[in-house]
Amino acid sequence: MNLYTSFMLTTLIILFLPLVTNILYVHKNKSYASYVKLSIVYAFITSIIPTTLFIFSGQEMIISNWHWMIMQTLKLTLSFKLDYFSILFIPVALFVTWSIMEFSMWYMHADPSINQFFKYLLMFLITMLILVTANNLFQLFIGWEGVGIMSFLLIGWWYGRTDANTAALQAILYNRIGDIGFILTMAWFLMYSNTWEFQQLFMLDNNLNMLPLIGLLVAATGKSAQFGLHPWLPSAMEGPTPVSALLHSSTMVVAGIFLLIRFHPLMENNNNIQTLMLCLGAITTLFTAICALTQNDIKKIVAFSTSSQLGLMMVTMGINQPYLAFLHICNHAFFKAMLFMCSGSIIHSLNDEQDIRKMGGLFKAMPFTSSSLIIGSLALTGMPFLTGFYSKDLIIESTSTSNTNAWALLITLIATSLTAVYSTRIIFYVLLGQPRFISMSIINENNPLLINPIKRLAIGSIFAGFFLSFNILPTNIPQMTMPTYLKLMAMAVTLLGFVLAMELNTMTNNLKLKTPSSMFKFSNMLGFFPTTMHRPIPLLNLYMGQNMASSLLDLTWLEKTMPKITSKTQMTLSTTISNQKGLIKLYFMSFIASALMMFLLIS
Amino acid sequence: MLKIIIPTIMLFPVIWYSNSTLIWINMTSYSLMINLMTLPLLNQAGNNSNNFSLTFFSDSLSSPLLMLTVWLLPLMIMASQHHLMKESLTRKKLYLSMLISLQMFLIMTFSATELILFYILFEATLIPTLIIITRWGNQTERLNAGLYFLFYTLIGSLPLLVALIYVQISLGSLNYLVMNIWFQDMSSSWSSNLLWLACIMAFMVKMPLYGLHLWLPKAHVEAPIAGSMVLAAVLLKLGGYGMLRLTIILNPTTKIMAYPFIMLCLWGMIMTSSICLRQTDLKSLIAYSSVSHMALVIVAILMQTPWSFMGATALMIAHGLTSSMLFCLANSNYERIHSRTMLLARGLQAFLPLMATWWLLASLTNLALPPFINLIGELFVIMASFSWSNVTITMTGLNMLITALYSLYMLTMTQRGKFTYHIHNIKPSYTRENTLMSMHMLPLIMLTLNPKIIMGLTY
């Protein structure tokens, strides 16, 4: 006997309340923003209870209540799956969102429609929770699409800016490509398993056809911005910083990986799909890490680092370690949200300056933000005994001890090293050295609404990994024995990255400029991906829409062959047949002629 | 059935005897009351249909469509108020009479038991629509549009008459309820193929099938708001309804004959969606999006599976409400900007925030956001076509992608971005308009809670 269900539903209901009560206006003397924040705090506290119970008893559960439809042999119900993943993810997501909400109260305080902003953020979170707790594919799809649409609205928050609108559309475009995969999977399961419920899917044959699994992979690729469908993630930086923080930490981008984790029972025996995931993840993690190296926009660097970490999670899925991938999702949420908040704080203080070349020396001006930024970066690189270490180190260890694709492993290692390089680059340019920003900017980080969330997440970035891995029962046997050089591999590549980056960064101050090398161009131009794939294909489609579909087919062929030709033939026929030709002169002439003739005959 | 038809007929005296101040309110409230009377029809207990008389019946396929028709009349009246403001009283009354007669014909079309009666009424709906388009349209192109509308549908449906007479002779009856029992498999000869074509083409043109769709964008663009609404919401669905009714007597020939049409639809829906991506004219965009959605319905009906029938019926209702709402929104823009061009109406979100919400909701339903009934419809059709052939997922999936893109493109174009200076002094949105939008949106949301009432015969 336990109280999972009631507490979980309480959590969800508390979250739904602000959406409804906004109309009733119950928050009379408080601002709506703080009302939303408060409800998230309450939801977090109530969600802690079932999590504690779960850690204690390890009991998983399904709530199934409200029949929606029964069609033929398919039953669709509203059901929540409270298992290892959802129960552990909910408090993490709520904790991170709590901080983000508090941060956005500071960041967005001047926005006239701040209430709407908070409502959107809340809906974003709710859709993510729907996705996480869903027990059937349809409910998951509701959350899946909901997350996509909310990200569209939030990325395009500053709707007066063309860039924001383009970025929002771009996010939808790439996500929709992923959705094709999702629909494919749904259709396949409906056809061959005749169910969308997870238990029933997993109980059936585990040696599946590749098609639905590839569909899932495509869906995850779109949502988690894996290589090929990644460009929307850095573009999404056009949204306000709290949105980026939420999008990159606990919602949206991890949804793809989460989907794969959910469907892990179907994938664990299928080597082909695992190899695909491994290669895709490895390519993503390296490619985006390379892209992050030469970016100058601080948010872009952090965004690319998210993409790189998502690639790492995909690699983890590829080596059949879903629990590790999930742990990395949870840990990653803490420090990534904090990194975005720190950059938001810096950007706000420097009058919306995002270029790291125009920062520098902030170590003195913003000591708290700087130390949090350093903690976050170190956690990201997997510094021992910070949060990132507990999952990242394990991932690297299990990767290097598994006997799968060696090239993919090598690529992952290089990417790990590059993580240290770009993290150092942020620290070096933003915090160290001499100030390069306009001296007029008023730098003030002493706002409790700013300090508290960052502080909370900084503590999280230090200890969360420890607490999570300390409390959660190991679900699969971690790799215990390995040679010393493999054990130290993760450390070694990270340290190598640090040393290299420090050397390189100090060199930039001493060397004079020369024309950038082709490698620099590759990295700076995002691997030429936008110029080769991102623009030409949509352009081609738009041209096709205009020239072929509209001008050629609709306006010419269909118009000319059917209506126009019919009327034309009718016209010609009728003019040929009719004896009225409109030749007035001739008619009159003949009239005169006949009249004359008559006259002559009579006379 | 008479309790719906007679009140509808009695709407005529209501307008003609109302004085000028009460004309709108009388009409709207009275037509809403007729709605109440159709509500019990939705309760279809068991598999039997409600046979009201020898001529009229309703079952779970026709009653949602009936409901939609009846629901749409007050909405059309509300939407046309501004458009008719400058007309004289007699003309207003004439216009409303046209709408009422259209509703009357449609109610009888959807509830007729006899195919010949259905055919006559099907043709009769052309007359009021034609008058609405050619008399109250905005530009001179309306005449051309009316011509296209009339001739496409007439040419398509004349062979149907011949076919119906033939079926009457060979089967002895054209009653749906009897045909179910009496029909015999068609022989596999050329003549039965021709019979199939004759029976189906009328509805294909009405739906419209890609290639025969030219009348639709023209008619939609040129028609006044009520005309566009009823065209998109109900008249296109006549085609789907007719196909669903007639395919039962066209077995096994459908299996062979469906191939080229399914191909054409799958191809056409991508073509029309990509046309949408390049449209600058708001109404034309919505019209083309109707073509692409209706292509899905045709595919579903031709596949002949229970799932696809459910999907087709749900999609018809969902699309009826959604596209009608989009036309209303386009019209509310038109009344302010006096142009259908999207470029001229940028950044309206800053001025009309509530209207922007309606735009958002309409676009989201148009792109089939779960769990709206639009998604249920589309999803079922995609599932059915996937099980018909796995390859179709590339087409339907691509169409999903493009649909989302053009819906959001439309939203971004009109609501987002910097506003232009000539819209500084636009009117705020009226309560009438907001009511209109919410009356489109509410049924969509409520049907989402309980979609089984619009799932049709095979549910």
From TrEMBL, chain A:
* Record keyword NAD present: yes
Q: Which residues form the NADH:quinone oxidoreductase/Mrp antiporter transmembrane domain?
A: 134-418
Give TM segment ranges: 6-26, 38-56, 84-105, 117-134, 140-160, 172-191, 211-233, 245-263, 275-294, 301-319, 325-347, 368-386, 406-432, 453-473, 485-504, 583-602
Instruction: Tell me the Gene Ontology biological-process terms attached to this UniProt entry.
Output: electron transport coupled proton transport; mitochondrial electron transport, NADH to ubiquinone; mitochondrial respiratory chain complex I assembly
Reaction(s) catalysed (UniProt annotation): a ubiquinone + NADH + 5 H(+)(in) = a ubiquinol + NAD(+) + 4 H(+)(out)
What EC number(s) are associated with this protein in UniProt? 7.1.1.2
Q: Which gene encodes it?
A: ND5
State its role: Core subunit of the mitochondrial membrane respiratory chain NADH dehydrogenase (Complex I) which catalyzes electron transfer from NADH through the respiratory chain, using ubiquinone as an electron acceptor. Essential for the catalytic activity and assembly of complex I.
* Molecular function in Gene Ontology: NADH dehydrogenase (ubiquinone) activity; NADH dehydrogenase activity
Report the locations given in the UniProt record.
Mitochondrion inner membrane
**A cellular component annotation (GO) from this entry:** mitochondrial inner membrane
Signal peptide (from-to): none
Class in the EC hierarchy, top level: translocase
Q: Does the keyword Ligase apply?
A: no
What are the NADH dehydrogenase subunit 5 C-terminal domain coordinates in residue numbering? 422-602
Q: Which family does it belong to?
A: Belongs to the complex I subunit 5 family.
Coiled-coil stretches, from where to where?
none
Q: Which UniProt keywords apply?
A: Electron transport, Membrane, Mitochondrion, Mitochondrion inner membrane, NAD, Respiratory chain, Translocase, Transmembrane, Transmembrane helix, Transport, Ubiquinone
InterPro entries listed in its UniProt record: NADH_DH_su5_C (IPR010934), NADHpl_OxRdtase_5_subgr (IPR018393), ND/Mrp_TM (IPR001750), NU5C-like (IPR003945), Proton_antipo_N (IPR001516)
Which residues belong to any copy of the NADH-Ubiquinone oxidoreductase (complex I) chain 5 N-terminal domain? 68-118
What name is this protein filed under? NADH-ubiquinone oxidoreductase chain 5
Membrane topology per the record? Multi-pass membrane protein
UniProtKB/TrEMBL annotation, chain B:
* UniProt-listed GO biological process terms: ATP synthesis coupled electron transport; electron transport coupled proton transport
Q: Which residues form a coiled coil?
A: none
One term under GO cellular component: mitochondrial inner membrane
Q: Write out the GO MF terms.
A: NADH dehydrogenase (ubiquinone) activity; NADH dehydrogenase activity; ubiquinone binding
Q: Which residues cross the membrane?
A: 21-42, 54-73, 94-110, 116-137, 149-174, 194-216, 223-244, 256-277, 284-303, 309-330, 351-373, 379-409
Q: The NADH:quinone oxidoreductase/Mrp antiporter transmembrane domain covers which part of the protein?
A: 112-399
* Cellular compartment(s): Mitochondrion inner membrane; Mitochondrion membrane
Membrane topology (UniProt) = Multi-pass membrane protein
Pfam families named in the record: Oxidored_q5_N, Proton_antipo_M
Indicate the enzyme's highest-level EC class: translocase
* InterPro entries on file: NADH4_N, NADH_Q_OxRdtase_chainM/4, NADH_UbQ_OxRdtase, ND/Mrp_TM
Q: Where is the NADH:ubiquinone oxidoreductase chain 4 N-terminal domain?
A: 1-109
Give EC number(s), comma-separated. Answer: 7.1.1.2
Keyword list, A-Z: Electron transport, Membrane, Mitochondrion, Mitochondrion inner membrane, NAD, Respiratory chain, Translocase, Transmembrane, Transmembrane helix, Transport, Ubiquinone
Q: Which family does it belong to?
A: Belongs to the complex I subunit 4 family.
Give the function comment from the record.
Answer: Core subunit of the mitochondrial membrane respiratory chain NADH dehydrogenase (Complex I) which catalyzes electron transfer from NADH through the respiratory chain, using ubiquinone as an electron acceptor. Essential for the catalytic activity and assembly of complex I.
Subunit structure as annotated in this protein's UniProt entry: Core subunit of respiratory chain NADH dehydrogenase (Complex I) which is composed of 45 different subunits.
Query: Know the name of this protein?
Result: NADH-ubiquinone oxidoreductase chain 4
Provide the species name.
Microcebus berthae
GN (gene name): ND4
